[in-house]
Write a structure and sequence with these properties.
It is globular and about 70 Å long. Strands 5, 6, 7, 8, 9, 10, 11, 12 and 13 form a 9-stranded antiparallel beta sheet that branches. By secondary structure, it is of the alpha+beta class. Helices cover about 30% and strands about 20% of the residues. Helix 1 (about 1-15) packs across helix 6 (about 190-210).
């Protein structure tokens, strides 16, 4: 999906002239098809670290870091097509995404982390997007260092990787709730800087979806729940690492189970198979409507008559998730309307 962003974002840039605003994911190529273009970029940045990710695998399997081209020579010219356009009998080469590694991540206690956010798309044409308030930060179990790029416990935050570390504590786990993470950042950098950071993350969600909007098959009977993985660097700039079309819903502990159980409950409530919603809701459970063929504005702007900014103000990512109160209020409204 990340490789799609590389080509898809160029459409946004050409159409809207917003190249600078689309600078939210690392330099990315797909191998083996982009091998020669990648080599040119590699030579322009000889001291950079790169990360390889197999497209068809998950949970950190097959991911590795490298600094020398000889480490990936097996992908060079290894496609299974002949000059005349026919296929030979060799097994097709596994496709990989290669990205320039973000080597200056924001650290907490000397450890790297990334953030998992959940975005629900109920329509692509027109684009209708819901953002879940809750999520989590996935922490590395080892102190960050660029000296040992082969140490997956240092560089990969996947829970499937971290829980195999010798000193992993299953009781503590390796996750922070998003509200904990936001509060921590606020104590370190203040509310204004953190608001700017999370507003930039909102921008990532929308622009990444707009970049593929025209090529997605739109069906009013379908929806997509995406798991966004975002990394923050030491300057508080967010970077899009991956968009998971089938995010893992396996729970690593009770807190994780509660989050994902409520997430799925709220997904089904938004989908509204029983026809209980009016269609005008800006909030359903833990989901906030952030885009409805345009930015969605919070009630405070509507009530005060303030001018509307070009971005959504109806998001509360990492904020207080009083979803039960919201659901009860919706149910009371529905019951009264039926009466």
């Amino acid at each position: 999906v990340v490789s799609s962003q590389s080509s898809g974002s160029s459409g946004i840039n050409a159409e809207y002239g917003e190249a600078a605003k689309c600078d939210f994911f690392p330099t990315t190529f797909e191998l083996p098809s982009d091998y020669h273009i990648f080599v040119e970029e590699f030579k322009r940045s000889p001291n950079s670290t790169w990360i390889m990710k197999p497209i068809a695998k998950s949970q950190g399997k097959g991911i590795f870091l490298f600094r020398k081209l000889k480490d990936i020579m097996e992908w060079k010219k290894e496609d299974s097509w002949k000059v005349d356009g026919t296929r030979d009998d060799r097994e097709p080469v596994e496709n990989y995404v290669v990205q320039k590694y973000i080597d200056n991540p924001y650290l907490i206690g000397g450890r790297k982390f990334d953030i998992r956010c959940y975005v629900l798309v109920t329509s692509y044409i027109p684009l209708k997007v819901w953002l879940y308030r809750s999520g989590f930060g996935r922490m590395s179990n080892s102190r960050y260092s660029t000296d040992a790029i082969e140490d997956t416990y240092v560089h990969l935050t996947n829970v499937a990787i971290q829980k195999t570390a010798p000193d992993y504590d299953p009781e503590k786990g390796c996750k922070w709730s998003l509200i904990q993470l936001r509060m921590y950042l606020m104590t370190k950098h203040g509310p204004e800087a953190v608001e700017t950071l999370f507003r930039a993350m909102d921008d990532i969600f929308i622009k990444s979806l707009q970049s593929v909007q025209k090529i997605m098959i739109n069906d009013k009977h379908c929806f997509e729940l995406y798991g966004y993985d975002v990394l923050i660097d030491e300057t508080l700039k967010p970077w899009l690492l991956e968009i998971n079309a089938s995010p893992s819903l396996t729970a690593s502990n009770q807190q994780d189970y509660d989050l994902k159980f409520k997430l799925l409950h709220d997904v089904l409530t938004v989908i509204d198979m029983e026809g209980k919603l009016t269609g005008k809701e800006k909030r359903v459970g833990g989901f906030d409507l952030m885009w409805n063929d345009g930015p969605v504005y919070g009630e405070e702007l509507v009530m005060e008559g303030m001018p509307h900014p070009p971005y959504s103000t109806n998001t509360r990512l990492g904020g207080f998730n009083d979803r039960e109160e919201n659901l009860k209020s919706m149910m009371r409204s529905h019951t009264n309307s039926v009466k």
